């Protein structure tokens, strides 16, 4: 039997015998709809980079509650899925595809300097992202400056910035992580690369992510997690399937030294130039850095009473107190159930204890530390379009022991970024969603729902700690 | 740029959104492909669910909506490869092809199919994937290369090696 005959034989036999079900199980459709609902959230909150999981839990909050009963034991209680943005089959009528620009990244260096990346898509150019910088707190902005395709961007002042290059030939080719740096506020960019060595390569189709963090214009780290592949495209063996590399530079990103990182840091997030945290590959670990990401201490998280062993844990906020203790907000999630607790560490993050259960008040909220024990919690309106599409807010002055509702005005749901530089001065990227009813393409009504366009986003600002907001930039 | 209305349902911020562009139709196709590669319901569901999650995380990397299907397929196939490798390491879950429901027919045909099932089981994960993509999904070499993220020449060599291994097994059944 030659190759052609064997090929025909395989074709006939495989078509005769391999008969998968015609449709994916409903659980998968539900998973896709849930993720689609979260897709309106594209950027991390609090001006901290790297966390998409935060948004997973934000959505989980919309579909789950945990009630605290009697003796303090937690009872995990799931609720029906919320009516957030629905991903539905394409209707017979055309759905608008290309539209106006949207804010995709907001970062504030201080009260005056900030950058905003917006994206727009048209039929001829595809998706194009551009950078604008302000040096007067958002009163005036630079003209949009085009950006190459990138995965992470940071500025430390109005002129010095870096991004991870995802253009062809950049990151992912020949064991290189591509970095571009600018010293003129994004007018021009200079390429450099991080050699992760060992003949390791990978493609952007592999699961990979890079977090850049610069403490100042010279010193920075790049934290990379990726699935390694050899030159033939085959995945290389690795203990957890993921290889993590930590690279550092002391010359502003011109040259880098890289080494395989001991711990794999998942979703590194920096609170300030020095303090950062990240999950490990184990859900019971939390890594904390106090030197801008150069070194990481492995901490152990407590076991939450009532939580199953397969629960995921996600840290939503870390605050360093003047007395040296660390305070944190953590979310435990198991399936569609979740709990939100406050934690404290007195040894720099090596050990943590639960200091309070905040589930009843703030499950599903996003948190910003505005001062010692002064935290702001905001939540999108996940019930839209059944409700009005306005975000809601709570504030605590005692690190989550008690919460008070605040009357938000001017901040539409969905917000995607929160970034405060002081107790009163904060920005958010937000847009008001608009939905229209759609029917299943099959006409059966199955999977019918609302297709939602969250609309062009704008940058909103507050000067009173998050109560009132006004738009300051619409791309 | 062409916008395939079949791709577009959820449009975030008025722009093409990679994940939002995934539709029920794509999901059904993806699940069927995973099932064809893995040969059982549970692993196909696991692989597809993992691929959805990865796609959601990586959605900003897709800039060309015309590449949506290939992009998501690539993620899915990688997940299937991971599962096949895990299965090979654990040696507890042989390929299910030989246990799939058969179309009733003559004894000789059944025997031939059993031999083929065993032969397919003998392939390594990458060989098995190219065989399924080529002869079950009926993709071209270039389409397979796009989905695997490897050069076409690599696909050809994997396919050649796969056929060689299959032929050897079929011609020397034990």
List the main descriptive attributes of the protein structure presented here.
heterodimer; A: 475 residues; mainly beta; Methylamine Dehydrogenase, Chain H; 4-stranded antiparallel sheet; 32 strands; 9% helix; 40% strand; B: 174 residues; mainly alpha; Rna Polymerase Sigma Factor, Chain: A; Arc Repressor Mutant, subunit A; 2 domains; 7 helices; disordered N terminus
What's the CATH architecture name of the largest domain in chain B? Answer: Orthogonal Bundle
Percent in strands of chain B: under 5%
User: Number of DSSP strands of chain A?
Assistant: 32
* Corresponding CATH architecture of chain A: 7 Propeller
In terms of DSSP E residues, the strand content of chain A is 35-45%
Largest sheet of chain A: 4 strands, antiparallel
Q: What's the CATH topology name of the largest domain in chain B?
A: Rna Polymerase Sigma Factor, Chain: A
Task: Give the rounded overall mean pLDDT of chain B.
Answer: 67
3D structure, described in words:
The complex is a heterodimer of chains A (475) and B (174). Chain A is mainly β. Chain A has one domain (24-473): Methylamine Dehydrogenase, Chain H (7 Propeller). Chain A has 4 helices and 32 strands. Chain A has helices at 3-17, 26-38, 53-63, 359-362; strands spanning 64-69, 73-78, 102-108, 114-122, 126-134, 145-147, 150-155, 161-165, 176-182, 190-195, 208-214, 220-226, 243-249, 257-260, 266-270, 276-279, 285-289, 297-300, 312-320, 326-334, 337-345, 353-357, 366-371, 374-379, 392-396, 404-406, 415-420, 426-430, 434-438, 449-453, 458-462, 470-473. Chain A has a 4-stranded antiparallel beta sheet, with no helix packed on it. Chain A has a 4-stranded antiparallel beta sheet with strand order 7-8-9-10, with no helix packed on it. In chain A, a hairpin with a 5-residue loop joins strand 11 and strand 12 (220-226). In chain A, helix 2 crosses helix 3 (53-63). Chain A is globular, with a radius of gyration of 23 Å. Chain B is built from 7 helices and no strands. With 174 residues, chain B is mostly helical. The model of chain B is unreliable at 1-17 and 89-112 (pLDDT under 50). Chain B has 2 domains: 1-93, Rna Polymerase Sigma Factor, Chain: A, CATH 1.10.1740; 95-174, Arc Repressor Mutant, subunit A (Orthogonal Bundle), CATH 1.10.10. Chain B has helices at 24-38, 41-57, 68-90, 107-121, 125-136, 141-148, 152-171. At the A-B interface, helix 1, helix 2, strand 3, strand 4 and strand 30 of A face helix 1, helix 2, helix 3, helix 4 and helix 5 of B.
């Amino acid at each position: 039997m030659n190759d052609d005959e064997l090929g025909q034989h395989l074709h006939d036999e495989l078509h005769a015998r391999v008969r998968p079900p015609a449709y994916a199980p409903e659980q998968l459709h539900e998973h896709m709809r849930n993720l689609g609902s979260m897709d309106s959230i594209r950027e991390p909150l609090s001006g901290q980079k790297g966390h998409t999981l935060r948004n997973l839990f934000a959505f989980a909050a919309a579909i789950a509650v945990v009630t605290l009963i009697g003796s303090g034991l937690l009872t995990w209680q799931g609720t029906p899925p919320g009516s957030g943005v629905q991903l539905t089959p394409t209707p017979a009528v055309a759905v608008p595809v290309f539209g106006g620009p949207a804010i995709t990244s907001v970062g504030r260096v201080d009260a005056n300097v900030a950058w905003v990346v917006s994206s727009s898509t048209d039929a001829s150019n595809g998706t194009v992202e551009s950078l604008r910088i302000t040096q007067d707190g958002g009163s005036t902005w630079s003209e949009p400056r085009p950006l190459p395709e990138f995965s992470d961007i940071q500025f430390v002042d109005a002129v010095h910035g870096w991004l991870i290059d995802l253009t062809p030939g950049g990151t992912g080719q020949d064991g290189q992580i591509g970095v571009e740096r600018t010293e003129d506020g994004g007018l021009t960019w200079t390429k450099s690369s991080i050699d992760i060595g060992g003949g390791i390569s990978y493609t952007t189709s592999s699961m990979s992510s890079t977090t850049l963090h610069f403490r100042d214009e010279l010193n920075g780290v790049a934290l990379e997690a990726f699935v390694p592949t050899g030159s033939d495209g085959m995945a290389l063996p690795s203990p957890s399937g993921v290889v993590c590399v930590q690279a550092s530079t002391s010359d502003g990103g011109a040259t880098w030294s890289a080494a395989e990182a001991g711990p794999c840091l998942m979703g590194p997030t920096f609170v300030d130039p020095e303090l950062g945290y990240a999950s490990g590959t184990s859900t019971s670990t939390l890594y904390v850095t106090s030197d801008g990401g150069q070194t990481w201490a492995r901490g152990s998280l407590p076991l939450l009473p009532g939580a199953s062993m397969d629960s995921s844990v996600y840290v939503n906020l870390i605050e360093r107190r003047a007395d040296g203790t660390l305070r944190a907000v953590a979310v435990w999630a198991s399936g569609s159930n979740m709990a939100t607790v406050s934690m404290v560490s007195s040894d720099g993050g090596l050990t943590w204890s639960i200091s309070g259960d905040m589930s009843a008040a703030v499950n599903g909220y996003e948190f910003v530390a505005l001062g010692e024990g002064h935290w702001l919690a905001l939540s999108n309106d996940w019930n839209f379009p059944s409700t009005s599409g306005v975000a809601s807010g709570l504030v605590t002055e005692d690190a989550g022991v008690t919460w008070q509702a605040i009357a938000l005005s001017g901040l539409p749901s969905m917000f995607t970024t929160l970034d405060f530089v002081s107790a009163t001065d904060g920005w958010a990227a937000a847009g008001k969603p608009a939905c229209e009813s759609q029917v299943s393409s099959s006409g059966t009504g199955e999977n019918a729902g609302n297709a939602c366009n969250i609309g062009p986003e704008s940058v909103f600002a507050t000067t009173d700690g998050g109560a009132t907001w006004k738009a300051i930039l619409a791309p | 740029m062409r916008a395939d209305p079949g791709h577009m349902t959820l449009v975030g911020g008025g722009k093409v959104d990679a994940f939002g562009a995934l539709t029920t139709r794509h999901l059904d196709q993806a699940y069927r492909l995973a099932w064809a590669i893995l040969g059982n319901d549970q692993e196909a569901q696991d692989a597809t669910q993992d691929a959805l999650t990865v796609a959601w995380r990586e959605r900003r990397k897709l800039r060309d909506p015309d590449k949506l299907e290939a992009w998501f397929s690539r993620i899915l196939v990688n997940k299937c490869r991971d599962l096949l490798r895990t299965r090979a390491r654990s040696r507890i879950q042989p390929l299910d092809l030989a246990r799939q429901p058969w179309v009733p027919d003559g004894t000789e045909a059944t025997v031939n199919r059993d031999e083929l099932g065993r032969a397919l089981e003998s392939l390594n994960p990458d060989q098995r994937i190219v065989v399924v993509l080529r002869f079950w999904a009926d993709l071209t070499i270039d389409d397979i290369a796009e989905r695997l993220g490897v050069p076409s020449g690599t696909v050809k060599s994997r396919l050649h090696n796969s056929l060689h291994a299959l032929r050897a097994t079929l011609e020397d059944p034990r």
